[in-house]
């Protein structure tokens, strides 16, 4: 139990690293939370500091999820301290737990007053290691939506919804045997709902027509 608790805590702390705040302070000497939407995430960095800084932050946030799943989870050894009632092997279950902990850390970071980003990038890193094909489809959907609409928030929500939909289509229409499908699907749906919840203010702004679009060509002024 101590080892599992250590994995959860370390994954949470890695997820909690406020990359957007660090990058904005080092590169421009500002606190990104005082600009744009006020969100400490890669999308807001992209809006305020330009796509290069934003993309760099997003990559770092993705790596937090990857690190939790493929590095921290490997601290696990032996059997888990509870009955594994899922169709996954013990290590895969530990990876899922570590990944969720990192996403929670990103959204509610202990290093910034428990107010972090939306969790999209860190969840992306986690899921890329667990449901690779479905995540690649979701990334494609995200890129199409953000290119056409210029709304990163809309693309993030639709991309998140695409993950469970892709699982359902592959399993039930194309009859692909996805290991642990009956357990994996509810987990993915819950994670998708969490993503939508963290974007609830963006949804309101999208409906009201006040959501900011991202530019890939020009950098917005910070003052």
Summarize the SSE layout with pairings.
Elements: H1 2-16, H2 19-28, H3 42-49, H4 51-70, H5 90-107, H6 120-130, H7 132-149, H8 152-172, H9 181-198, H10 200-208
Helix pairs in contact: 1-4, 1-5, 2-4, 3-4, 4-5, 4-6, 5-6, 6-7, 7-8, 8-9
Structure explained in plain terms:
The chain is mainly α and 223 residues long. The chain has one domain (2-208). It has 10 helices and no strands. Helix 2 (19-28) packs antiparallel against helix 4. The longest helix is centred in the C-terminal third of the chain and has 21 residues, at 152-172. The protein starts with a helix and ends in a 15-residue tail after the last helix. The model is unreliable at 219-223 (pLDDT under 50).
How many domains in all? 1
Number of helices: 10
Strand share of the residues?
A: under 5%
Distance N terminus to C terminus? 50 Å
Shape: globular
Largest sheet: none
Counted beta strands: 0
List the uncertain runs: 219-223
- The whole-angstrom Rg is 18 Å
Features:
single chain, 223 residues, mainly alpha, globular
Structure, briefly:
The chain has 223 residues and is mostly helical. The protein has helices at 2-16, 19-28, 42-49, 51-70, 90-107, 120-130, 132-149, 152-172, 181-198, 200-208.
């Amino acid at each position: 139990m101590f080892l599992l608790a250590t994995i959860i805590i370390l994954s949470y702390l890695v997820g909690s690293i406020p990359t957007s705040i660090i990058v904005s302070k080092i590169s421009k000497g500002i606190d990104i939370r005082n600009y744009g939407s006020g969100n400490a995430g890669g999308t807001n960095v992209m809006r305020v500091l330009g796509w290069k800084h934003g993309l760099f932050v997003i990559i770092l946030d993705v790596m937090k999820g990857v690190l939790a799943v493929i590095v921290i989870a490997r601290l696990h050894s032996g059997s888990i301290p509870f009955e594994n009632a899922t169709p996954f092997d013990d290590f895969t279950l530990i990876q899922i737990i570590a990944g969720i902990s990192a996403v929670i850390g990103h959204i509610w970071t202990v290093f910034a007053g428990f107010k972090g980003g939306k969790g999209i990038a860190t969840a992306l890193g986690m899921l890329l290691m667990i449901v690779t094909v479905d995540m690649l489809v979701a990334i494609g959907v995200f890129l199409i939506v953000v290119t056409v609409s210029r709304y990163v928030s809309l693309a993030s929500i639709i991309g998140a919804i695409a993950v469970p939909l892709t699982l359902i289509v592959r399993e039930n229409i194309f009859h692909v045997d996805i290991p642990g499908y009956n357990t994996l699907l509810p987990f993915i749906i819950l994670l998708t709902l969490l993503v939508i919840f963290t974007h609830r203010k963006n949804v309101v702004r999208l409906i009201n027509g006040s959501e900011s679009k991202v530019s890939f060509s020009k950098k917005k002024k910070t003052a």
